[in-house]
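Can't paste images in this forum, so I'm doing it all in text. The chain is below; anyone willing to post the predicted structure tokens underneath?
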Amino acid sequence: MQNENGKYPKLRNYADDKLSLDYQGPRSLLKGIGFTDEDLNKPRVAVINTWSEINPGHIHLKEVAEFVCRGVKEAGGFACNFNALNLCDAIGGGPYVLPSRDLLVNEIEVIVEAHKFDAMVLLGTCDKIIPALLMASGRLDLPTIIVTGGYMATGCVDNKNIDFIDIGISVNKVKEGNMTLDELEKIIDNACPAPGACGMMGTANTMILLTETIGLSMPENSTTAATSPKLNDIAYKAGLQILELWKNNITARKIITDDSIENAIKLCMAIGGSSNTIIHVPAVATESELTIDCSEIYAKASLEVPLLIGIRPNGEYTMKDFENAGGLGALLNQIKDILNLEGITVTGKTLGENIKGYDVKNKNVIRSLDNPLENDGGLILCKGNLVPEGAFIKQSAVPKKLNQFKGKARVFNTVKSAIDALQNGIIVSGDAIVIVYQGVKAGPQSAYQFTSVLKGSHLKDEVITITDGRLSGAASGACFGYASPEAALGGPLAIVKDGDIIEYDIKERSLNINISDEEIKNRLKEFVFNRPSKRGYLGIYQKCVGSILKGAVLSGD
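Text version of the structure:
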């Protein structure tokens, strides 16, 4: 397949021609399953679909992938549909959740490189899936479009919006006697009307919005509902467009650049995005072989970019409200003066061209830079002698009374033990809950279950949480995540004792333990962590996972 000037890229799949002796075995096998010589002389597009019947965010993607394939075929390509790994964080939990991200990246590499595909369309929705698709895009550097699966409708009970956030809160209300089991059941029945990404500004919707901002998904994809017929139309257009990217040799690394990563981080601040982006965005940069320091960009952006939309849990608005107000295009157009607009995107146009003409339709939902919801951005990085490399907190979800804090440490080595202490009255107002050994080397685990239970308790605005593990993008309250270095690597977190005084100041970006440097050194000298050896994939992950600051990607080095 070539243009008039013979300038289309050479197909990766074949030798010089169909008569090459090196190609006869694969040719025979492919003809045996129904492909013609004409098919086999077309650019081959891998349509990698993370559909499954157990994942609410992905259960609809089988049909969406069919529209992608239709577009590829009509544009003159040879589409091959694959099914790949996916986990819903809330259903497929435990230590496998974060490692599943990197397993999917490797799976995509194996599929695409072994078959020598010329281009990719990647489909996904959920928390670890979208980062994996972005990482694989950067690693393989082929013409690539990501089709994201849309947002879930917001549930409603007694004329009040509810979503996944409300379940953990309600469970603890039942345990404290503030809600009946019947009321809880009503919330469970209505909170998650699948399909799609859980309807709050959690990790899934955050990463979906960042994907379009980077330029790897089609315009309006990120603020289209999973149940909307428009999603199938976007998928079809992606199938058509991937051939245009191939013809013009627009590969993923021409889109994933320092500038587009910086745009994504700024957008994350404006939307009050998930704290988990601080591990996923650096991972995308690392896989794309960029040298950008994402932590410094986060720190700078948190001072420069205010919070402009209040989608649950940062406010009472929903993703549907955001779409109706003009969607991502309108928000990006609103902040265009602080963005890099010249970068190419999957449309073949620049980001500036993509967002032109998108206007804000509801100024209460999408605020302007001179009329923000909060003056500072959503995520901030705090540093101090407790966290020399920093810990991230979603400032937009912190009650104002907890912007400064000083209290006694209560240390737990597991999330369960912290929950038990909360429910048994051991944790009291003014405590600083420190949950350690949850980081990538020791866990990797999320402490979200504790913060969710805490939010449903009477202490929700009275205590704070610090962990070296993950937190859900939907976490709210004074919750510090990814505290680094993690305890298992001998960071100061490892030597915190019950009763130590911990204090922070969000305005000053500080987080400290009130003991001397000498005392910290002496305690660290005595520290011994006997990391339990893991088997199977988790053992491989534990041995090969790298620095959180670089995205905790796997490396054979």
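The mean pLDDT is 91. The chain has three domains: 42-154+193-355, 155-192, 382-531.
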